[in-house]
Amino acid sequence: MTLKPRQERFCRLFVECANAAQAARAAGYRPESARNTGYRLLKLPGIIQRIGELHTTIADGQCRDVDALLSKLETVYCRAIDQHQLGAAARAIELQAKLGGVAATTRAPRTLHRKGVQPSADEEEIIADPSEGKDAD
């Protein structure tokens, strides 16, 4: 089914905003009936198919973008290792994990404590206590 130009605009706008009434108004349908028009358009097989095609195109583009970023981060990682910049290498690995969906994208908030920063619960487990290891006299 070939869509009319206004229907094509509706599909493109709906993919952007995910609001049928807003997409219908922006595509040029009457504002008074945009809600009903958007609902009606989303029931048409040609519209459904076109929106699916647009979603697929967007998803493919995002996958290529992620692959390109992962490749660039691999280059950063390799150079950091060659130059013995372990902090930069670790950061590149962290970003690769986030982009790949392997690691969480947020960190636990830090709060000020005494003269420094209070570690998060995860960090507390690995930071040595200076008083540990001293013999009690």
TrEMBL record:
Protein name, entry field: Terminase small subunit
InterPro entries: Terminase_Gp1_N_sf (IPR038713), Terminase_ssu (IPR005335)
GO biological process: chromosome organization
UniProt-listed Gene3D superfamilies: Terminase, small subunit, N-terminal DNA-binding domain, HTH motif
Positions of the UniProt region annotated as Disordered: 110-137
